[in-house]
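$ fold --in a.seq
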Amino acid sequence: MVEHERTGPLDLLTWSFSRVAMWAPFFIVCIILYEVIMRYVFAAATLWVNEMSLWIAGGIYLSAGLYSMQQRSHIRIFIIYDIAPLWLRRTFDVLSTVCVGIFALAVIWGGFGEASAKFFRFETFGTAYDPPIPATIKPLVLVMMLFLALQATSNLIRDWPASAWIRKMFDLFVTIVVIGLAAMAVYHLFVAPPEGMTVPLRWLLGITVFLVIAVALVLIGLFRDFNKTPKPVDLMDEIEEEAKFQRSQMEAPSEALSGNPPRPVS
């Protein structure tokens, strides 16, 4: 698979954490294999594998949409889009981005109270293993929705492409948003925690490390690509390139396709 280029702080942040999520299914397979061996070979079933696999799968499901948006691989219908003139295509692009933003805002607005309450009381799953799935997945939904809207806007700005100053202002905006959210989270977790907060210390430290890495990534992406002009993405180029590859395969000599190329003439 050929990935689209990463330009700017948001693309680098999305790509980096998506790389971690890509290895998560392998971890799920490993722990399920461990469960099968323990259950049917040693007759000592575990209590944690089922909930752990659900927990990780929820994070994969949420992060996959963000990566798909960055790679422009989400489902799109082109029946009308392909025959429309350029100005109408751009209108469609703006409308779709606005719809994504409105949906993300509605989800965040409606779910913030419940998500923050579940996190600060560190609500658990209520099973024998009792992982904090509600306390972690609920806030993760809101975070992913925010970055999904930002990623859709980033794609819109870079795929037209927009003027350099618009792109740079957006990159600065994303950097300020990430740093501001990280500072707000640290303030509420360590400086002025809400009354009745029961988040364990190890989770506080883990979240802090996550926030530090996120801030570092957006700063690296900002300084690395601030003066870089990204190449506009044209999905039709990919279709034409695939068709060209198919034609080249059909025109290949039969000896090459059979695996028995002709011997060179000495």
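$ fold --in b.seq
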Amino acid sequence: MKKREGMIVKGVGGFYYVLIDGRIEECRAKGRFRKDGIVPMVGDKVKVDSERNLIEEILPRKNKLIRPPVANIDYLGIVIAPKNPVPDYMLIDKLIIYACTQNIEPIIIINKIDLADETLIEEIIDAYRGTNWAIFPVSCKDNRGIESLAHAFSDGIITLAGQSGVGKSSLLNTLYPSLDLEVGAISEKLKRGRHTTRYVELLSLPHGGMIVDTPGFSSISIDRIDLHTIKECYPDFEEYKYGCRFGLKCLHKSEPDCCVKDSVKKGLISRDRYDRYVRILEEVKESGVEYR
């Protein structure tokens, strides 16, 4: 029996469409998956029995998201608009934390730059400059920055997330023009009952890489994440944390002789970002997660 490796790019009605050697093949999943309570997901790397077009094995997952339901995501594109809507920095920070804990690299995408002056755009860049995460100012209207963004994830799988109204659907349409995803809260098509059921699909992009064909979450809960794990999701604290009196056990919140807090006072770390970090710690602690 010859097995070939591929990736599930779509699943509809018990059939899975697997990309193998540049071609998409329609496959069924082996019956034991259902018996074992395992559901193949878009993004899964699998081994397929070529003679029967049967998925025999699901290879270990790097991560698994629930909304959208995909596996093995490499990049989370966090989409922000400089205005309309005003950036929700708490949501952005929580999305970054979520990405880091799922072994996903955050990419910050500042959309709608054609509608904002440089001051607003620089405010967002300054807020995250110390993180060393990639930041891409883009415009779907005139395609500024789109090619650079596409090249940034040409070696992996990306999904988008962010507030409602920041232009996630427009960005998807710009990156993959034939998608024709509805833009706006309720489209005329949707009102007429068309496309009311959508299946998640991975789309191959012209510059390489793949993108999930539907925007992801616009709200998120991180209340089950350990406090020290959250701390490690702040690369802007990295170079200062080793001088704390309590070393790597320091949460940089209420401990004395904390170099991170001193660096905030000196302006080396963003005060606003640090204050949001403390608020996130308090939210998570109130939810019942204990210190390690």
